[in-house]
Write a structure and sequence with these properties.
Blueprint lengths: L2 E5 L6 E5 L9 E5 L7 H12 L3 E5 L10 H10 L2 H19 L5 E6 L3 H6 L7 E7 L15 E8 L5 H13 L4 E10 L12 H19 L1
Parallel strand pairs: 3-4, 3-5, 5-6, 6-7, 7-8
Antiparallel strand pairs: 1-2, 2-4
Length: 221
């Protein structure tokens, strides 16, 4: 298993989970947690990616708070400081770059709430060359400031990310010149890849992970 360290400063000080071994000169992935916080599901996922040969870090954007109910998660998400989250996101990317060295390529991956930093951070850091999204999206002019390829995993039935919006989001990215691959998983709902949630679907989660690893190896080397 990995270990925690501290990154950032001031209001943007955060825990950072470093998965597996502190390998250098290998591709790296920053994993951004959903609105539940940096929980066991995210840590286990980071370890799975580390086991696939990547250096992986996962920042805690909620100051150690973890929610188990939707109501509590909504409160955490609403109470989050956007500027602090942006700073923590970039601090995590910078720390991963230090760990793997200047020759390794990096990717950003986000679950739901974490989709925004997974899409925003490549517009701020040239070392990030790919983004992966799990049932999450975002919007803003920064989407046109980066041309990194995007892999997305979306549920068939999702009140947070409707089919209509996912299609619009995909078209938005393509119009910005992005290489986009979006997968939709039949019979699934939001959070289908998180084992602690009732919506968890093991087959879909494993397929999404396989596709993620293949995508990362293609674009990170």
């Amino acid at each position: 298993m990995g270990e925690f360290e501290t990154i950032g400063s001031g209001a943007a000080t955060s825990r950072l989970y470093v998965a597996g071994d502190r390998a250098s000169a290998v591709p790296g992935v920053v994993v951004f947690h959903p609105w539940w916080g940096l929980n066991d599901d995210v840590i286990a996922y980071a370890e799975r990616l580390a086991g696939a040969g990547f250096a992986v870090v996962a920042p805690d954007m909620f100051g150690g708070l973890v929610a188990s109910t939707i109501e509590d998660a909504e409160r955490l998400a609403r109470g989050a400081d956007d500027a602090a989250i942006d700073a923590i996101s970039l601090a995590a990317v910078d720390r991963l770059a230090e760990l793997v060295g200047p020759t390794a390529k990096l990717a950003a991956l986000g679950f739901s709430f974490g989709a925004h930093p997974a899409m925003w951070s490549p517009s701020e850091r040239d070392g990030l060359v790919a983004s992966v999204l799990y049932y999450g999206s975002t919007d803003g002019p920064f989407l046109a400031r980066s041309t990194v390829p995007v892999l997305g995993h979306f549920a068939e039935t999702d009140p947070y990310e409707t089919s209509e919006w996912v299609a619009e989001f995909e078209a938005m990215l393509r119009s910005a010149g992005r290489d986009v691959v979006f997968h939709r998983y039949p019979g699934t709902g939001h959070w289908f890849a998180e084992p602690s949630r009732d919506a968890y679907q093991a087959d879909a989660a494993e397929l999404a992970l396989e596709r993620t690893v293949a995508f990362l190896r293609e674009h990170l080397g």
